[in-house]
UniProtKB/TrEMBL annotation:
A Pfam family matched in the record: Acetyltransf_1
PANTHER family on file: DIAMINE N-ACETYLTRANSFERASE, GH14572P-RELATED
Annotated source species: Roseinatronobacter domitianus
Protein name per the record: GNAT family N-acetyltransferase
Cross-referenced PROSITE patterns: GNAT (PS51186)
Amino acid sequence: MSGSDAPRLAAPEDFANVLGGLRALADDLDDPFAMPEDALHSALFGPQPLALALVAGGQGVALVQPQISTSAGGVLAYVSDLWVARRARGSGLGRRLLANVARESATRWGALGLRLAVHDSNTNARAFYARMGFVIHGHDRIAQLKGAEFATLKATP
C-alpha cells in the first residue's frame, strides 16, 4: 500500500474519492445514492461540518458522525458508510480505516466506541465486523421517516 493509500482524514481535495467510494458502496449494496453532491460536500467541509470522512486513496472510504448514546454513556462514532474496493478486500484496509475512525472520533468527539448498521444479507461484512468484536444486536432495528411522512411530522404544531 502506498502512502497515498494509507487511511487518513479527508480534505476538500479528496472529495472525488469520497464521492466515488460512496457511490461504489451504494452500487455494491444495490442501494440508491440520493445525496446531492453539494449537500454532501457541505456536510463534510462546509462552515458547520456534520460528519467527517476518511479516505484511503481510491481504495476505501469511511463516513462517520457523532452520536450521543445515553445507554453507552457518551458519544459513539456512527459509521454510516464503509467501503473498500473489491481488489483491496482482505488486505486489512477496512480494519485500518476503522482504526483511524476510532482514533479521530475519540480525539474529536471523545467517542467511547463505534456503532454501525450492516445489511442482514451482507454475510462477508457481518463476518468482518464479528472478527473485530462488533456485537450485532438482534433487538436493534433502524427506523427511518422521510418524504411526505417527515413533512407531515414537521408541520405538526
